[in-house]
Every structure is written in structure tokens, then in C-alpha cells.
Specification:
The complex is a heterodimer of chains A (103) and B (281).
Chain A lengths: L3 E6 L3 H12 L4 E6 L2 H10 L4 E4 L5 H14 L4 E4 L8 H9 L5
Parallel strand pairs in A: 1-2, 1-3, 3-4
Helix pairs in contact in A: 2-3
Chain B lengths: L2 H15 L2 E3 L9 E2 L14 E4 L5 E4 L3 E5 L17 E9 L3 E8 L3 E8 L2 E5 L4 E4 L3 E6 L4 E7 L6 E8 L9 E6 L9 E6 L7 E2 L5 E7 L4 E5 L5 E9 L2 E3 L2 E3 L4 E4 L4 E6 L3 E9 L2
Parallel strand pairs in B: 15-16
Antiparallel strand pairs in B: 1-7, 2-4, 3-22, 4-5, 5-6, 6-13, 7-12, 8-11, 8-13, 9-10, 9-12, 11-14, 15-17, 17-24, 18-23, 19-22, 19-24, 20-21, 20-23
The chains are: A alpha/beta (103), B mainly beta (281).
Chain lengths: 103, 281
């Protein structure tokens, strides 16, 4: 089974590092982080992400533009807002987004 | 993923979270992460959701014994992820001297209510505080903060509620507030402890939400008028037994009610109740 590849976009570098580390600690999940819109678009063009987390500090205008770009390249990509900053909600959000609920 | 794998992964990653830490030692090994559900058989009225205390998610990490009314960390039940904008209701028991090491948050309204013992808080905004019984603390995590929370006392547990509410506005400047309330002002009364108005009673929250605490004597009855049309109310019984809109509730039970204008509350014993009014959408 291919790993679930996740792109996280946020403006707080320490929180970004934490979120990436937490996701990478999970078997079957891999993650890349982007602090700027340009970096996020470049990563999305280069790699195949199944899920995008919009994190703290990302302005609504950026969010809308990024969604447009991502969906144009990959209409199947799931894009959700991440709340809490790598806290107790992170794994729940990912499970919910990909419907990988434990049986 | 199989449940056994999920639980195993949970144990490994809880360690990797690095949240568990003693003031003296970082050694902390969780011995149980997983599910503890019982079927919900009781329900009395329309537009309600009942969460009996024993159906909450439970995790005992040794230093932390925690009960999750809603999905949190490695407890995930897709039918219990939130009540409107109320996302987290954790009932935490932390051993003496232990606590949550420095960890980040963003875009969340985080309310802490100590029920027993004292909790020491430090954050990246420079706040250092101890919150005690009768205090209510709120943090708007906004664009991002780091904080730690430890049991201030070495020889006794701290029990506190940690409540997370989705923010009305994302990416606000992080903010901290703490208020000490008079316990006598909630005897047979509903005392407002959280409100969306900076000029109203209670700590200010970045959401159209109001929280009230009541210490109700046996036989006392009262009602709560919903403040904003469309909001729902989640009632959590801290202590004792109450009946709300005809539904009997016991210690640590939760009842969510929506599409109503008021709640009728009767204390079936001496009881303490927390009412959390939140937007449903």
C-alpha cells in the first residue's frame, strides 16, 4: 500500500516542524511542509499529495488560490483546514479526511 | 487499519508526541490507549445527544488519566467528533508534579477549568500563572502559541476540564486571560464564566459561546435561556445528579440539546453542572 502523502501549509515554522514530525511518526503517512504559497505550489507540482492541511496563519485569499491550483492539478486531492497546531486533533482530522476509521 | 494496529500505533506515537513529562523526569510510558465505549441506550427527547460518562474515550498514560467526551488524540469515534463548535471536552487527572511539556497550538479557543488541585501554566506570550479551583483560564491560540501545563503540587492529583471551541475568526493574535470567580455566586444560580462580549461577565471567547457553572442544591430547579438563536447547549454534570429537559443525568454525563429556546434543569441531588452554549454551524 502506498503511503498517504500529506502537504501542510502554515506560517509558523515551529508548529510546521511539529506537525510534520507528528505525521511522519505514523506508519504509512509521510509529510512535507510549506511556509509560503510559492513553496506549497512548487511542492504540489513536484510530488503527489493525497491530502493538504491548511494550517495556522494562512490567509483566506491564499487558501482560495491554493485550492484552485491544487484542484486543477489533482481534482481528487482532499483539502482541509487544520485546527489546533499539531495537537490532539491532528490524527483525528487525517483519519476523518481519508475515512481511514479504525474498524 | 485494524483496531489492534491503531492502538499500537497510538501508544508509539503518544510517546513520540513528547507531551508527557515530569518536572524532574521525562520518563512516561502510557499503558493504555484505545477505546472504551458502551452503547448509548437512553434518550428521551428529540434534538438531543446523550453521552453517558462510561461511554467516553479513556486513556491511562500512568501520569495522566484522561476521559474524552469527543474524539481526541488516538481516541477516534466518527460519531463523536464535536457538538457544533465544541470540539474537545477532556476530563484530565494528572499526577503530582507531572504535566504536559511545552507543545504548540493554533486556531483554537482553549478553556481550562480546575476542579481539584492547582495547575501551573507557562506560555510563549510570557504568561506564567497558577490556576486553581474557582479560576477559569482561556487561551486564544490564534496564529500560534507554545505552552506547558503542570500539576503545581507534588503530592496530590490535579483534576481539570480542558475544553476546546473552534474559533469564530481564524488567525487572530494569540491571547490569554484568567478570572477567579466567587463560588457563592453560583449556589442555586447559573454563573456566567465565558462570554463573547468583553464587557460582559466571564472570560472573553472568540466565538458566539457562553459558558455557565451552577452549584445546585437538591430539589432546586432553574432554567437556562439560549442566548443566540441557532445555538445549542452541551450540559456536563461535574458532580451529582440532575434532570435536564426530562433527561436524567449523573456525574460526568453529557447532554447536548439544540433547536430549543431553553433548558429546564432540576437538581436530583446536590449537583454541579457546566452549560456550554455554542453555535451549531
Amino acid at each position: 500500500m502506498n503511503p498517504l502523502h500529506i502537504l501542510i501549509i502554515g506560517r509558523h515554522s515551529q508548529i510546521m516542524e511539529t506537525v510534520v514530525r507528528l505525521i511522519e511518526s505514523q506508519r504509512g503517512w509521510t509529510a512535507k511542509g510549506a511556509l509560503t504559497d510559492e513553496e506549497a505550489v512548487a511542492l504540489f507540482q513536484k510530488e503527489n499529495f493525497e491530502l493538504v492541511l491548511i494550517g495556522g496563519g494562512v490567509e483566506e485569499t491564499s487558501e482560495e488560490k491554493l485550492k484552485e491550483v491544487f484542484l486543477m492539478k489533482n481534482p481528487a486531492v482532499k483539502i482541509i483546514r487544520h485546527y489546533g497546531g499539531g495537537s490532539g486533533l491532528l490524527f483525528n482530522e487525517i483519519h476523518e479526511a481519508v475515512a481511514e476509521t479504525p474498524k | 487499519m485494524k483496531r489492534s494496529d491503531f492502538i499500537k500505533t497510538g501508544i508509539l506515537s503518544t510517546v513520540s508526541l513528547g507531551l508527557a513529562a515530569s518536572a524532574e523526569s521525562k520518563a512516561a510510558t502510557p499503558d493504555l490507549v484505545g477505546f472504551n465505549h458502551l452503547p448509548i441506550k437512553e434518550t428521551k427527547t428529540m434534538n438531543t445527544v446523550l453521552h453517558k460518562a462510561a461511554t467516553r474515550g479513556h486513556a491511562n498514560h500512568g501520569w495522566l488519566d484522561t476521559n474524552h467526551t469527543f474524539s481526541f488524540a488516538h481516541y477516534y469515534d466518527p460519531t463523536r467528533t464535536h457538538f457544533g463548535k465544541l470540539r474537545v471536552l477532556n476530563d484530565d487527572f494528572v499526577d503530582g508534579g507531572m504535566g504536559f511539556g511545552t507543545h504548540p497550538h493554533d486556531n483554537m479557543e482553549i478553556i481550562s477549568i480546575p476542579l481539584e488541585g492547582d495547575l501551573e501554566h507557562k506560555d510563549s506570550m510570557g504568561n506564567v500563572a497558577v490556576i486553581r479551583q474557582n479560576d477559569v483560564q482561556i487561551m486564544s491560540a490564534g496564529t500560534g502559541i507554545y505552552h506547558s501545563e503542570y500539576n503545581k503540587n507534588k503530592d496530590s492529583k490535579v483534576n481539570f476540564l480542558q475544553i476546546w471551541v473552534f474559533p469564530k475568526e481564524r488567525n487572530i493574535t494569540p491571547r490569554y486571560d484568567q478570572i477567579t470567580f466567587k463560588p457563592e455566586d453560583r449556589v442555586n444560580k447559573l454563573q456566567q464564566i465565558v462570554s463573547p462580549s468583553k464587557t460582559d461577565d466571564g472570560v472573553w471567547i472568540n466565538q458566539d459561546a457562553w459558558f455557565h457553572l451552577g452549584n445546585l442544591k437538591k430539589g432546586f430547579s432553574t432554567s437556562y435561556d439560549v442566548k443566540l438563536k441557532g445555538n445549542g447547549v452541551y450540559a456536563f454534570v461535574i458532580k451529582g445528579d440532575v434532570t435536564i429537559n426530562g433527561q436524567s443525568l449523573n456525574k460526568r454525563d453529557g447532554l447536548g440539546v439544540w433547536d430549543v429556546e431553553k433548558l429546564d434543569i432540576v437538581a436530583d441531588s446536590d449537583a454541579e453542572v457546566l452549560l456550554m452554549e455554542v453555535p451549531m454551524n
